[in-house]
User: Fold this.
Amino acid sequence: MLITLSLSTPALATTPTPAELTGVYLKQSTGAMWDPGVQLVLTSSGRGIHVILRCGKGDLSGLPQVLAARVTRGEVSFSLPEGGDSRCPAGEYKGRFRVVDGVATSLTLRLPSDETALDLQRESGFAPAGSFYPYE
Assistant:
């Protein structure tokens, strides 16, 4: 019985729970029109998993959008409807967390209007409303 428990513990540690993946994920923009910045906050509550999403080109002037999210096996997905002021493209978003030693360090996020994926680094706090540089 002890052997079974010790063998299953490492397998559990390699797949973080949705609550362990919560945090702020940020891709800073250089300010160029072709280089979008994205801030995604993944949060967990008694009502499920949600993302707070906003985008911009050089700043975070888009209004945050709160959206229901699905997190399974280290992946997140959510849908942004048309008509918001988040400056993010509407459609289905899909992302995969990079986990190192049981801790999520980044999120590769595919935007609906873009064939490339953005690498969002996990941050320790919120970026101010007018900047993609959270520690200025």
Summary: The chain has two helices and eight strands. The mean pLDDT is 78.
